[in-house]
Specification:
Mean pLDDT: 85
Shape: globular
Low-confidence stretches: 5-25
Distance between the termini: 61 Å
Strand order of the largest sheet: 5-4-3-6-7
Number of helices: 5
Number of strands: 7
CATH class: Alpha Beta
Radius of gyration: 19 Å
Length: 173
């Protein structure tokens, strides 16, 4: 123990605890509950708990993301194809400037819910490591799939995961 600073260890422990308080207590892990969020959307607040009982395809995107431009038409198709079965696509934009997001949306139609997180807190809580990143959430609020990026050759596999989630949800009703 340091004789000049007898409380140094206690002080250091307290500082480390204070730093960890601001870290996410739960990251997106398959089988665990999806972290809650409430963010402004195009038509009002977007809250994860408002989708309880639905299968949610949660997507993180930014205006500067090339693959995001490719994912939007696919997400539109998924939303239209599976809406009646209970799918809801929710895309969270992380641009710091709303104008950047709105410019992207003018060129890339979205027939699904859009939320805005200019502070970028939600992708941190979900431990999202790239754009786009997506999380498939079951009707019970638990994470079924975490996916990084968007590649054309992965579309069929992602759609299959959505179909499985919707089938399981249909059997649970």
């Amino acid at each position: 123990m340091n004789k000049r600073f007898p409380h140094a260890a206690l002080l250091m422990s307290t500082m480390m605890l204070a730093l960890t308080i601001h870290l996410p207590v739960q990251a997106a892990e398959v089988g665990h509950p999806a972290p809650h969020f409430e963010l402004p959307g195009r038509a009002g607040a977007i809250r994860l708990d408002a989708y309880k009982g639905k299968v949610v395809y949660l997507d993180f995107w930014a205006s500067w993301c090339g693959p995001c431009k490719q994912s939007f038409p696919w997400m539109n198709t998924m939303q239209e194809r599976y809406r009646e079965q209970g799918l809801r696509v929710v895309a969270i934009n992380v641009d710091q400037k709303n104008d950047d997001a709105n410019s992207f949306l003018k060129d890339n139609r979205a027939s699904f819910d859009i939320a805005f997180d200019p502070a970028g807190k939600t992708p941190l809580v979900y431990d999202n490591k790239g754009m786009p990143g997506s999380v498939l959430i079951g009707p019970d609020g638990k994470i079924l799939l975490v996916h990084r990026g968007f590649r054309q050759q992965e579309r069929a596999g992602l759609e299959h995961q959505i179909q499985l989630a919707l089938a399981a949800a249909g059997n649970a009703r």
